[in-house]
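Translate sequence into structure tokens.
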Amino acid sequence: MSTTPNLKVAESVGGAAGAACTDAAAMRAVRKSHKLADVCYDIRGPVLERAKQLEDEGHRVTKLNIGNLAPFGFEAPEEIVVDVIMNLRGASGYTDSKGLFSARKAIMHYTQQKNIAGVGIEDIYIGNGVSELIVMSMQALLNNGDEVLVPAPDYPLWTAAVSLAGGTPVHYVCDEQADWIPDIADIKRKISSNTRAIVIINPNNPTGALYPDEFLKQILEVARQHQLIVFADEIYDKMLYDGATHTSIASLADDVLCVTMNGLSKNYRACGYRAGWMVVSGEKRHARDYIEGLDMLASMRLCSNVPGQSGIQTALGGYQSITELVAPDGRLTRQRDLAFDLLTQIPGVSCVKPKATLYLFPKLDQTMYPIQNDQQFVLELLEAEKVLIVQGTGFNWAQPDHFRLVFLPHEDDLRDAVGRIARFLDHYRKRHAGG
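Result follows.
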């Protein structure tokens, strides 16, 4: 039987494949938006991708890179879990675009406890975590070229959200020598005619700083003089140590427009519930157009996830179990103290002891650790010791001389992890001695 027809089919298929390859080579690459050019979120960046590869290869990686509490045994309080389950059958439909009435009423009561005046139900927006609300608040506000003052170091989503909205983030310096309290003179120097707002992260991620009332009043005076909006990220406002107390900046003035962010993720160990909120307070009369923009964006995403919303009322009104964790003998306090002591015993490592949050932000003496690229530095640590941390420049800190780690692992695991960091740093010092 002749094979000619089959050969012709093969030739035809081969010719088509060749043409397809040529067409594919000529196709225009699909590239990401130019708006993402200045957007960076290294907490979940390329080093994390390498960590995932190592895990796929069978390695155990200790992840000290992110404040995700559940993997370390910190679970949401049982009454919140039960309440979410009990309300699940009624959570199939959309809520009001701003959120469940009962949840917003509980948030309103919480603002009263924090002494924030003049907050009504319509001033409260519930989102899929604070992250969604940060992006929404910037999208509603900024035009191309508008500037927002953001701390350095910062939680990098703030910088990213400003850039994504077409704005320009302008970083003001937090002063490590002053327990990471921002430099008010530096803030004033960086205000221009294009400045629209100032962001404060209090308690601060990544430094663990807690801002005193006197500094908050200085920020409000700057905002008052230059007609700036104050965006206050207060997600760690109950995660306080050594008897410290937190003041919401919005409670200190009713003549400055403030937008305050908070949620269940940290204080209530419910990161995956994605239940955050945003409260607009202060001088709202001149901000009606901006608030209309917030309303529009809230409506466009229909509503935030309803099961997560159903836990808010119970969380805010129930027993505050976070107080046990941050008590003098509480688990978080013990682990903070242990991590701080172990790190600062390493030659060339110093750290301001955090007054709040889940993080340490140590400094490396650059004469002993002449790091040029701190992302490469943390990658080398990962490869050598299977410990994952985040480089300081990932938080928009200018110099490659800091890193952030979480102190969430149990004490024995924390000793092991910091011990491996110490071993890596010892080898690093010896490799670069005299260099």
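Note: The first helix runs from residue 4 to 26.
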